[in-house]
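Suppose a classmate hands you a notebook page containing two proteins, each written out with its sequence and a corresponding row of structure tokens. How would you begin to make sense of it? This section walks through that situation. The first entry is reproduced here exactly as it would appear on such a page.
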Amino acid sequence: MIRIKILDCTLRDGGYINKWKFGKKAIGNILFNIAKSNTDIIECGFLSDKPYDKERSIFSSVEQLNSFIKRDSDSQTMYVAMIAIGEKELDPSRLDDAEQGPLDGIRLTFHPDCIDKAFKWAEIIMSKGYKLFMQPVGTTNYTDKQFLDLLERVNELKPYAFYIVDTLGVMYKKDLLRQVILVDNNLAPAIKLGYHSHNNLQLAFSNAQALAEYKTDREVIIDCSANGIGRGAGNLCSELFMDYLNKNHSAHYDVLPVLEIVEQYLAPIYIDNPWGYSSAYFLSAANNCHPNYSSYLMAKHTLSMPAIGNILEQLPRESRRFFDKRLIEGIYQSYQANAVDDMKTVGALRKEWDGKSILVLAPGRSITEKKELILDYVKQNSPYIISVNFIPDYINSDLVFVGNGRRCRELADELDVKKTVFTSNIKNLPEGATVVNYSELINASCDASDSSGIMILKLLIKASVQSAALAGYDGFSASSRGNYFDIRLSGIYDPQSLREKNLAAKQQLDMLSEKLKIKFITPSVYESEDCGEQ
């Protein structure tokens, strides 16, 4: 019968969700519980040359990592860490010898252009007594010849294990088994076969089962994480695969300690930083590209799923494996742009707004929480009211500014075309719509390039408006679900993205305030110098 081992990568791959900041106590308890579940191999985190933070599962020395491992005398659990060449790397010459502590092995991951460096480092790691796991990034991107050449070098090296790695989560069963057969027939018998999956197509579990049923005398290692925690669509769920092996392969894993980890440590993380399958991650897999491209476009909250798919199709083939923020932003803006001659439109707006007090309403939560404050301002100043991407329910807008195609579709049945201004990126507008040039209103920063709340201010400046009062410009808080007056407007962001959006928006507002006198009627993080820490 196949000999299967489970490797849990919760503290390493799961760290992409929370920047590895599980907390010192949590790291120790997670390691303890995973060992208690009889997991065969536990990955403790990354080894990196970055400064050490005891609250994170990234270590700058083996000594720091070893301090977290509490091994029972009769425990058969193996402990490993990862060195990622080009991402989070630590020169192996700095490693303590393996015999000096409980860390048993090193997982070495590398891209095709770093193969020579990887084999050089691999020899150093093995010379220090560590079990070596060779893990090429994205084996699906290797040609058969490249893959076989790599296996030949691996056979000469004789590591503990060699991995098939589905970095982009694109493998179907037939794709996996094809590479498994290539490895099984060309890898030295003593070398273990590993498999690391991602769940973009929701196939991590079924593919793991297919590998478990594959007939071979070779020992197989299958990676998983508690609740599937991992970047983007996440990984194979430890608890699911443990239960499967218990029921189908006479294994003896204890699932309850893993569920305790999920309940105590991972569920709170998931609330603000969810992971798992989504339509956008399917699109990234379908287009064989890095999942961060999909998550970046999702965070815009301006695009339909077909639009995201259309943009991903425009990515150059050679650029799909690695995330390039500038590249995807450029393609996004080109997709959105639809230049129009808006000189007459801007002239008409200039005439309409001339001499008026302007109040701009954005859809922040304060729109409802500070309702009385806003109504009092309106009563005292009788302003011309512009609402951005929404229609207020307690006050009449003189104009609705719509700079977001997704919001436009949601408002389609409510909008009065005669009292609405659209940006030119929005497709299929009704006849007679008033349209302004999108490309002239977007911003230089990727993180706030098409913020409608900022675009309307640029339009005010373009129309020679001198000052404006703002309400609902709250900025983003750590809990993304509380960022809008209507939860249906909320989207999924990670805290770092929210901080970057706040900082980018504040920088834009600061620059615009040199041309437009801005007054915040409701509280806003953009009034604070440290808005990026909100």
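The notebook's second entry, a different protein, reads as follows.
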Amino acid sequence: MGKKKKKQRIEGIFRANEKGFGFVEIDPEEEDLFIPSGSANGALNGDTVQVVIFKPKEGTKRAEAKVVKILKREKETVVGIFQKSKNFGFVVPDNKKFGTDIFISKSKCKEAKNNDKVIAKILKYPERGKNAEGEIIEILGNVNQAGIDMLSVIKEFDLPNEFPSFVKEEAEKISQQINEKDIKNRKDLRDNIIFTIDGEDAKDLDDAIAVSKNEIGNYVLDVHIADVSYYVKEGSKLDKEAIKRGTSVYMFDRVIPMLPFELSNGICSLNAGKDRFALSCSMEIDNKGNVVSSDVYKSVIKVTERMTYTNVNKIINNLDEEILNKYSKYIDKFKLMEELAIILKNRRINQGYLNLDIPESKITLDENGRAIEVKKYETTFANEIIEQFMLTANESIAEKFYWLEAPFIYRVHEEPDYEKIKETNKFLFNIGEKIKATRDNIRPRAFSDVLEKIKGTEYEKVISTLILRTLKLARYESENKGHFGIASKYYCHFTSPIRRYPDLFIHRVISEYLVNDYNLSGQRISELENKAKKYAETSSETEKNATKAERDAEDIKKAEFMEDKIGEEYTGIVSSITAFGMFVELQSTVEGLIRFENMGNEYFIYDENRKTLTGEKTNRTFKIGDNVKVRVIEANKMLRKVAFELLD
């Protein structure tokens, strides 16, 4: 008799779901494996595991696998709420995906009181139905204390809240004045009219722009980016800390910056009226939006005016006499910017750029850090001007360095899976739309055509979100694979070196090429290639972690905002439909769940393909995009959730 064939073991990261099942991420380019309930074998969210597949992929259904070995635990500590009883305590984790409370014996409770937010170290991981065991290592404060909720998120996601003293010291030694000796090595543009355009509360200003026309009628777009790599030297303490952080994290009233204040808000910030070193990208653009030539060089600039999106919008739309008078000598400049941005945007739309109009939330906090207002973040065409200019600079830089075969970090966004498109089409069929694609021919244009058709309809937000879920996640790579979402063959992140490490890294590469007249040794190229690969990977991970932290913080604040709205009635739009109820989004961007038991007294049938719910008695059907009236029945910032009941 032949030997039984040993099943192949696959390594990956386990991602748990609160409902008991999970997924294992293997490779950014491969589909995750599904881990059914009961097959996780004690694995916790984020653990590195070995799995074997017991059910191969079938159509749109993922392959199913079970965890056979835990290789590395992701977390040794857990943030949660301490619950005390007479002889012991429990920590209820903030992250519900952790899957178990942590038992704390009396001797290991420290001074923790009931309802304190704490950090517990895991001494014994859960096994065979037994709880995890741990000890309290840090008490953050009472759950209702101001700021404890955001501090909990910072600790939960291991965000570096403070800079180590040796990093601060290095930052403090950097002069807040530019080095006059280095001006001779740069293009001196201090007499040029240059603007920054940002939100009112922006403090780290890393991009500035100028637009003019040349003698043949082409536009000249200059994008000046803070020359951060001039100050953050390779291998320095600042550099090592920036690699570790990877990105700045924004949480309403606070920012966890990638670089210390002396750099991010000081010498690297392109503050109006101050001499600053920049890395500049100059592009000549024809009246169809094609970049006919581009150049990159080191410069010294002095920003003429710090503009806000609000004021630029007032200028281009002639909305405010006072503002128009204040900036009267620059009005033509802003009108020219608008003209060029429209041309660039139209060219992008023709290429199939996905204009996903998903509004962000603007959450206002009071002096104690409580959410007092949640609304849509309003954008204007002034935001669009900056977006179009930055996209164009990012593409120009990526294309130039791709053809130079330079070591580089690209922003990569690959085409979506055909199976996922088929799934989305099942829903789009309900509204008479379809993403036209075949297995061998998936183009951004097919998506943008659908987005154009639903613009301005009640389905716009929902379809945009659905299409976003169909797309793959963008990430950093040392190899250029194009960017599907912006329909671009070459793309990188060049424009934000104050707050993103990949931008800082490619600035360093560009500077080195410029200084050495585009002639680097083979050894140096090989060294930079290894670094590009490594930093692309770590930056993709830190970005993912930062995004999750920002989303968690937003969910907490939205639930907090709704806590005193219990019993209030609203009209919302059905944003998604599941096997356990439907999610409804309010005008304010707050989203809540209506479970079946809160949809009246009848049984609802869930149609997975069409994403609909149909009442068995009344035949009433709910679908994504429907307007419904709801009442708030629960809001819990600890659980980060809001629940509604349906009103007829």
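A careful reader of the second entry would note: The mean pLDDT is 91.
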